Amino acid sequence: MSQLRSSMSRLRTLSSREVCSNVQLSSTIRRGARSFGSGTSGRAGGGLRSGVVLSASIIAGLGAALVYSQSNSVAHCDGAPALSVVDSYGRPWKPVDALEQDDPKNVMRIRMALWVKALQDHIVTSLEAIESSHPPGPLEVSPSTTGPKKFFRDAWIRPEGGEGSSCVLSGGRVFEKAGVNISIVHGKLPTPAQKAMKSEHADIPISEKPIPFWATGLSIVIHPRNPHVPTIHLNIRYFELERDDGSDEPLAWWFGGGTDLTPSYLDTDDVKYFHKTLKSACDAHNTKYWPKFKDWCDKYFYIPHRQESRGVGGIFFDDLNTSSPLNGSAKPTQDELFDFVKTMSGAFLPAYLPIVLKNKDKAWTDEERRWQLLRRGRYVEFNLGYDRGTKFGLATPGARIESILMSLPETARWEYQSDMGKPGTKEGELIDVLKKPREWA
Predict the structure, then answer these.
(1) What span, in angstroms and rounded, lies between the C-alpha atoms of 291 and 441?
(2) Where along the sequence do coiled-coil regions lie (predicted)?
(3) Is residue 416 part of a domain?
(4) How many domains, the chain?
(5) Residue 441 covered by a domain
(6) Does residue 418 fall inside a structural domain?
(7) What is residue 56's predicted lDDT score, i.e. its pLDDT?
(8) Is 285 known to be catalytic?
(9) Is the Cβ–Cβ distance between 117 and 101 less than 8 Å?
(10) Average pLDDT of the residues in 8-25
């Protein structure tokens, strides 16, 4: 943990006014939305218990990061200063300008769209700063790793309605591959999909006409080059079904998301730090969230044919709305749930960057690199074999395949009956944890 303290002390303070200006929605989204005017916030949600696959897959592989709440729910982690006063290589943990621009009078689909647009740039710029500050290493002789890398920003338009932006960095000094993607789409939900949702939510009327939907999402996946720096994933999404009478009141809505850490080598201090940061973010809003979301994450990111987890977990949730049983006895408003989503996703930088800074300069061996690539093979197996959003997206005609497969590492490895990972080795220590998930916070 002392190394994490040192990493945190390397993060400089900076005026929060220098970030995220000129955040606005494109004309494409304006044309696609039925209403960008005022709407009531904190509306009671139609509790859809279904649609996990549908809503997640509509925005699969696409997204950016949201923000850390500006409320009094600032997390204080062991060895870390208050997150409200530290920044990441010249970037605050939270884009204050974007926070100030959030207008509660707007409908939630617009507020969420503004968040993901602002935070995508915020996260991308932070990661680029770390990448550019890292000195050249022995791999620099390779053409694929010459010089500090920047994200390739690929904006796209969805003909059926909406837009997105896929930001991908490849061949970097610190980040071998990283993707920070957003998706803001809308369209019509056909009757068969309505029936699929109704099986879990009887209140939804079945219409012979398609029902308008709106889906906003972000997705971050980072595969570092150093085997001692873990891979990380973050996903946030908002989905709503709209009424066809022109009303701003949605027929149903919910939030979903999650984040998990996937190390190649186990550092218990790093894992505890990561989990404590997420627990602090959850507890600031509802103490019921952490144990439920942590357990859900352990179960979701599991590879049955390997009988092991993809990584050391984190949190995962879906179908989160006012009436969700995930809230326990609480009945949070839509605004309050949005605050949680901002807090949870805003914990991304403070939960991960200290771990990156602590480990990115460590020396590694060819054997450690080999093990890292074998673990990435497991990552590929889960994403292509079990991740619901990825599977659905690949099976959907017209899906944007490049964005869906953004989550895959640039390199991976499979060996027939590999001799690595045996008990009593560093690699075996990780396998033991992956087969028997622990309580870290």
Answers:
(1) 10
(2) none
(3) yes
(4) 1
(5) no
(6) yes
(7) 53
(8) no
(9) no
(10) 38
